[in-house]
Write a structure and sequence with these properties.
- The protein is built from five helices and no strands.
- It has a domain at about 10-90.
- The protein has helices spanning about 10-35, 45-60, 65-90, 95-100, 105-119.
């Protein structure tokens, strides 16, 4: 596969990188939910998350280019796509969003972009 400049693209590297970024963002998202008390931070919840993230990382880093690795990565990606749907159907999400100041969103998205625009 070649890009628009004629250079060879490595689809496995792109897939692995995007999967790792998705894992990182899903982990940040769950951490933000626990801090804002939208999700319980109990042990059973965290054990399930650690098992899912560990399996997802194993599929991404140890099984690249294999069918089983692709299946694990696509299931993890679907999980990442389902998170907004689950949040919007959940009880208490609207009230928690109204009460929050959006600190994590401001710190990670808006402020760096604003700083880049000023530069």
């Amino acid at each position: 596969m070649r890009d628009s400049c004629g250079r060879m693209m490595k689809p496995n590297v792109i897939l692995t990188t995007s999967s790792l970024v998705t894992i990182l963002l899903v982990t940040f998202h769950l951490t933000d939910d626990i801090v804002r008390q939208m999700e319980p931070g109990n042990l059973s919840n965290l054990v399930i998350v650690v098992l899912v993230v560990t399996l997802w990382l194993y599929g991404t880093l140890m099984l690249p280019g294999r069918r089983s690795g692709y299946v694990i990565m696509i299931l993890g990606s679907v999980l990442g796509l389902v998170i907004p749907v689950v949040h919007m159907k959940g009880a208490g999400v609207g009230a928690a969003l109204v009460q929050s100041d959006g600190g994590f969103f401001k710190d990670m998205i808006i402020r760096p972009n604003y700083a880049l625009q000023l530069w």
